[in-house]
UniProtKB/TrEMBL annotation:
Residues 123-217 form the 4'-phosphopantetheinyl transferase domain. This is Enterobactin synthase component D. InterPro entries: 4-PPantetheinyl_Trfase_dom (IPR008278), 4-PPantetheinyl_Trfase_dom_sf (IPR037143), 4PPT_N (IPR041354), Enbac_synth_compD-like (IPR003542). Keywords: Enterobactin biosynthesis, Magnesium, Metal-binding, Transferase. It comes from Photobacterium marinum. EntB, EntD, EntE, and EntF form a multienzyme complex called enterobactin synthase. The lineage of its organism: Bacteria, Pseudomonadati, Pseudomonadota, Gammaproteobacteria, Vibrionales. Mg(2+) binds at residues 126, 128. One of its GO terms (cellular component) is enterobactin synthetase complex. Pathway: Siderophore biosynthesis; enterobactin biosynthesis. The keyword Metal-binding applies.
């Protein structure tokens, strides 16, 4: 008989996302890529993802790390809540009723943020390792519009950092509004129009849904910590008078 234990190594970290709302709960860990098996998932009370047996070690660790963060955030919200964040039919995280959230990871950092649907309608977070010069050169034109490239020239930032921030911000936007839109949209759907200290402003360039229209302005917060960038988009519920 196999005694249930876990070899998965991780450590808690102070969340790096620029989120000031007390009603948004975040958790973050650092972890190591290693060979793990189903017992590591059982130990943390996390269901095996589909096609688990076909996952390489890196993907298994990233998935487990993200779900551990989700569990931590949910327990901060309600210590009696025992809920395994599964995978919805569109492969997005499946949260408990009344909760919205977002999960992100690199190969060494994972995080999750959640909030009640009473206070927030949309949440999207993302973290990325700063792109290398070679990768940046190969994908910059896919991520940035011509106008965004002009904005880059105005800012005293390394191109690798600017492109990484733009990429991460657009990932956060996608995660935040995907459920409202219902389909995958490209990087050109949102264009950066302003870049300030810890904040980027984007404008939607096309109608995406009834709720999200061309011309809508989106605010994405960011923070750079070491070799990682952290971005977040939050939308509070409208309070009717």
């Amino acid at each position: 008989m196999h005694s249930i234990s876990s070899n998965f190594q991780y450590s808690y970290r102070q969340p790096c996302f620029p989120i000031v709302s007390r009603s948004v709960l975040c958790s973050q860990i650092n972890f190591n890529i290693m060979d793990i098996d189903e017992y590591d998932f059982f130990y943390h009370r996390i269901a095996l993802p589909p096609a688990f047996s076909k996952m390489v070690a890196k993907r298994r660790c990233e998935f487990l790390a993200g779900r551990i963060c989700a569990q931590i955030a949910l327990n901060q919200h309600d210590s009696s809540l025992c809920f395994d964040v599964g995978i919805d039919s569109d492969r997005s995280p499946c949260w408990p009723r009344g909760i919205i959230g977002s999960i992100t990871h690199t190969s060494s950092v994972a995080a999750a943020c959640i909030a009640s649907t009473e206070t927030h309608s949309n949440i999207g977070i993302d973290t990325e390792s700063i792109l290398s010069r070679e990768v940046c050169a190969s994908i910059a034109s896919e991520i940035l519009t011509t106008k965004e490239l002009y904005l880059l020239k105005e800012k005293a930032l390394p191109k690798e950092l600017f492109v990484t921030l733009a990429f991460s911000a657009k990932e956060s936007i996608f995660k935040a509004i995907y459920k409202d839109v219902g389909y995958i949209f490209g990087f050109d759907a949102a264009m950066m129009i302003e870049f300030n200290h810890h904040c980027m402003l984007f404008v939607l360039t096309k109608d995406l849904s009834v709720k999200w229209k061309a011309g809508d302005i989106l605010n994405v917060g960011y923070q750079v910590v070491g070799e990682h960038v952290f971005t977040s988009m939050l939308v509070e519920q409208l309070v009717e008078n």
